[in-house]
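G., the chain you wanted modeled:
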Amino acid sequence: MARSLPSHPTAGNRGSGGRVWYRPRLGYLDLQSNDRSPMRSATLFTFCAVSTLLACGGSRPAALALTTPETAVASLESRSGSTVTGTVTFTRADSGLNVTVELSGASPGKHAVHVHEKGDCSAPDGSSAGSHFNPLGHEHGAPDGAQQHAGDFGNVEIGADGKGTVTLTAKAIRLGDGETNVLGRAVIVHANHDDFSQPVGNAGGRQACGVIVAK
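Predicted structure as tokens:
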């Protein structure tokens, strides 16, 4: 509640015409002595509401931006004594992700490319990346087949110059969304082609590895 103004002046200055102008004590809200003051409650409510809006408007979008990027990339480095290098770029699409695989230094022919479950390329043979990324528990298969592991990208055709590129839409994976999120996982390029047999396509050794990171 507001304190009443005092009935007597606390300071004054004599002006023209003999009139005295007083500056009374300023009335103010006693927000400390009356915990149940309606005005205090309204003030606190306003403060909390503003704080909440600032938090929602400032922090939340930034957090979302970090966890749901539009693009990600895996920079592939050679493994198992190969000379294979390259990049795999992931871009958000209406249904899943558009994936572009670009390889160089590979032997002519087809080479299998898969997302593997662990984002660890530290082992010289790439084995630290674990098995195929398969969060939905599907059987291995071609990218356009009835079933496939989430990270089954099929094969890249390599020319006589050791280079090859393929672009596909991977419908079963996402960037930053739930169990099918591929951020922080690894892409493996294999020595042989994927024949789409069980359990993992008989694709041979691991010739390149790269961890998928937001771009």
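Residues 30-67 form one domain.

Shout if anything looks off.
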